[in-house]
TrEMBL record:
InterPro entries: Ran_GTPase-activating, RCC1-like_dom, RCC1/BLIP-II, Reg_chr_condens. Signal peptide: none annotated. This is X-linked retinitis pigmentosa GTPase regulator. The keyword Ubl conjugation does not apply. It holds the Pfam family WD40_RLD. The gene is Rpgr_0.
Length: 443
C-alpha cells in the first residue's frame, strides 16, 4: 500500500525479492515500522522507503508522502550500531553513543518536547541524553534507551505503565538493576539485566509480559522464565520472545496465527518452544512482528561429526560412514584383490576387463592345495592408448560370495556377446556380459 518493500510498486509479494536499488550497497541493519522500512549500509548511509506521512523517512519535503523505492535519508560520520522503527518514528544509534530520531512526536516518543505535541520531526535530530547510549528500541508510540552505565530511559505513550514511570517526557526508569538490553512491543516493555534476568512492565491482556493474573504492570517487575541465563529478548505487538545461553527459545503472549511457534492461542507465562529442542537446533536470534515471528537457529554442537579432527556437518541425504575397528581388519582371514587389465581387441581398440580374485591368505593354513584362485572377467569399457594399463585396489573381506552375487545381478543378458566372449572357470561362473552401469561393491 505504501511501497514499504522498496520494490518500486505497492503489490503484495509472497516470496523474498531483491531490492535492486540497494544491490550496489552492503546492507548492515534493517528495521521495519508499521508501514515503512529503514536500512543502513556499511558506509553508514541510511535509506528509507514506504510511508512518510509523519516524516518517518526523514524527508523534509511536504510532497513526499511515501516512497516506493529506497530514498536516501542521511549519511553519518560515525559507525551505525543499531536502528529501530516504531509505528511512525525512527531511531538510529551511533558508535559514539549518540541517538538520532525523526518522525512522529505526537506522544513525545522522540524524547524531546515540542511546542505542538502533534508536531513531527522530519530530519534526523539528536536525543538529549547526557550519557552514551548502547541499546535502543522503538514501540508503537514509545521509545527506550539503555545507557553505557546500565540506566534505562523511556519516553512516549505512558498508557498501561509501559514506560516504567508516569511521565510522557524522557525520564530514567527507577530501578537498581544494571540494564543491558531493552525491547518494546505495542504496549509493553521488556528489559534484560547484566545477570541475564528479565524485567517487564506494561500491558498484559494477552500474557505478553509473562506475569500470571495481572492485566498490566506500571513499574519494572521481575519475570521468572528459567534458571538459565537469558541472552536476548524481543517483542512483537503483543507477544515476547526470550533466548537462553544454551540456545533455547521461550515465548509468551498472543498466539494467534501461530506466531508463538506453539499451537496455543495464548500463553500467559513464558513457555519453552520444544520444536527446536526436538530437532537439536540452537536458537541464535529471534525477531517478532505484529503477527509473525522469525527465528534463526543452527544445529547443536553434538550434531557435528569429528572426522580426523575436522568438524563436518552431518549430511541429511547420505548414509553415515561405517566405522570398522582396526583389530577386526587385522584379524581378517581372507583378502580380495580387485584390479583391471587392458586387453587388445580385433578392431585395434583396447578394452578394460574387471577381475576379481579371491585368495586365501590365512597364514596358519598348511594345506597349500586348498588355496584357490577364482576369477571373473567382464568387458567394461573401451579405452584409448592413454588409458593406464593396470589399476589395483585391495579390499579386505570374508564375504566373497556377496561380491559374486552383486556382480551377477548387475550383469545384463546379451546373447550376442556371450557367443564372442571367453569365460574363465565356466563350470562355476556364468558367461561374461556387458556391464551397462558402473560396478559398485558394498562390503
Amino acid at each position: 500500500m505504501f511501497g514499504q518493500l522498496g520494490l518500486g510498486h505497492t503489490e503484495n509479494v509472497y516470496k523474498p525479492n531483491c531490492v535492486k536499488n540497494l544491490k550496489p550497497d552492503k546492507v548492515k541493519h534493517i528495521a521495519c515500522g508499521r508501514s515503512h522500512t529503514i536500512v543502513s549500509t556499511d558506509k553508514n548511509t541510511v535509506y528509507g522507503f514506504g510511508d512518510n506521512s509523519e516524516g518517518q523517512l526523514g524527508q523534509p519535503m511536504i510532497d513526499v508522502l511515501n516512497s516506493y523505492d529506497p530514498i536516501r535519508v542521511t549519511q553519518f560520520n560515525d559507525n551505525i550500531i543499531q536502528i529501530s522503527a516504531g509505528s511512525y518514528h525512527t531511531a538510529v544509534l551511533l558508535e559514539n553513543g549518540d541517538v538520532y530520531v525523526w518522525g512522529s512526536n505526537n506522544e513525545r516518543q522522540l524524547g524531546m518536547d515540542t511546542i505542538n505535541d502533534s508536531a513531527n520531526i522530519k530530519i534526523p535530530t539528536i536525543v538529549p541524553i547526557n550519557h552514551p547510549v548502547v541499546f535502543i528500541s522503538c514501540g508503537h508510540n514509545h521509545t527506550a534507551f539503555v545507557t553505557k552505565v546500565g540506566d534505562l530511559f523511556t519516553c512516549g505513550d505512558r498508557e498501561y505503565g509501559k514506560l516504567g514511570h508516569d511521565l510522557w517526557s524522557l525520564n530514567k526508569v527507577d530501578t537498581t538493576e544494571k540494564i543491558v538490553q531493552v525491547a518494546c512491543g505495542a504496549n509493553h516493555t521488556v528489559a534484560l539485566n547484566d545477570a541475564g534476568k528479565v524485567f517487564v512492565c506494561g500491558k498484559n491482556d494477552c500474557g505478553q509480559i509473562g506475569l500470571r493474573s495481572v492485566t498490566s504492570q506500571g513499574h519494572l517487575y521481575p519475570c521468572p522464565i528459567t534458571n538459565e541465563r537469558i541472552v536476548q529478548i524481543n517483542c512483537g505487538e503483543s507477544h515476547s520472545a526470550f533466548i537462553t545461553a544454551s540456545g533455547k527459545l521461550f515465548m509468551c503472549g498472543d498466539g494467534k496465527y501461530g506466531k508463538l511457534c506453539i499451537d496455543i492461542n495464548q500463553i500467559t507465562i513464558p513457555m519453552l518452544v520444544s520444536k527446536f529442542v526436538d530437532k537439536n537446533l540452537n536458537v541464535q536470534m529471534v525477531s517478532c512482528g505484529g503477527n509473525h515471528t522469525l527465528v534463526h537457529a543452527e544445529p547443536a554442537e553434538n550434531e557435528l561429526i569429528d572426522n580426523d579432527n575436522v568438524k563436518q556437518m552431518k549430511s541429511t541425504d547420505t548414509l553415515p560412514p561405517l566405522k570398522v575397528a582396526k583389530k577386526v581388519i587385522e584379524e581378517r582371514k581372507e583378502n580380495i584383490e580387485i584390479f583391471t587389465t587392458i586387453t587388445p581387441t580385433a578392431n585395434g581398440n583396447e578394452q578394460e576387463a574387471l577381475s576379481v580374485i579371491k585368495k586365501n591368505v590365512k597364514e596358519n593354513n598348511t594345506d597349500m592345495n586348498d588355496m584357490t584362485d577364482q576369477q571373473i572377467q567382464v568387458d567394461k569399457k573401451s579405452y584409448n592408448d592413454n588409458t593406464p594399463k593396470i589399476k589395483n585396489t585391495v579390499i579386505g573381506d570374508k564375504s566373497f560370495e556377496k561380491i559374486e552375487k552383486i556382480t551377477n545381478n548387475m550383469l545384463v543378458n546379451n546373447s550376442n556377446e556371450q557367443k564372442e566372449k571367453k569365460v574363465v572357470n565356466k563350470s562355476k561362473y556364468p558367461r561374461n556380459e556387458r556391464i551397462r552401469s558402473r560396478l559398485c561393491v558394498f562390503i
